[in-house]
Amino acid sequence: MKLKEFNKQNLPELRIKLVAALKSFEEENGVAINLGSISFSSDTFHTKMSVTIVNEEDKGESNRDIQLKKDFLKYCVLFGLEQKDFGKEVNINKGKAVIVGIMPSSRKYPIIVKTTDNKYVKIGSDYAKSLIK
Fold first, then answer.
1. 15 φ, ψ to 5°?
2. What is the count of structural domains for the chain?
């Protein structure tokens, strides 16, 4: 079936097909591909795509988790944390969570934690440091 236009109804299905088509490329080259949000008009759409090399210890993790981990290990010292803080369990307002990454472009809430119900929550670096101590 050929598309006549891009719209909110057909883009989620198109994203699923695109991810499935990229799966063989990921496996063949040992990378993880993450597609960002899609912006569109009726005849075009664009998305940001990031490609990350997957190490053996990263196998089985989601593309997002792999990228968050790499960013954490690279940028944690800029936010007053240490590499050993990755994966630490902390108690936040929503219950227990695990530190899983950093979004360095997010100045106000750069630290990412994953709650027990697998939701990602952004928190401030000062708050994260206070939870670790």
1. -60, -45
2. 2
Domain containing residue 10: 1-54
Span between the terminal Cα atoms of the chain, in Å: 57
Strands of the sheet containing 95-102, edge to edge, are 89-92, 95-102, 111-115, 120-123
Q: In terms of domains, do 2 and 27 share one?
A: yes
pTM: 0.61
- In a structure prediction context, what are the per-residue pLDDT tens digits for the chain, which is 133 residues long? 788 999 999 999 999 999 899 989 988 998 888 888 899 999 999 999 988 887 766 666 777 788 888 899 999 999 999 999 999 999 998 789 999 999 988 889 999 999 998 889 999 999 999 998 7
Q: Is residue 60 part of a domain?
A: no
Q: Which residue from 45, 33, 32 is spatially nearest to 3, judged by alpha carbons?
A: 45
Residues 81 and 49 in one domain: no
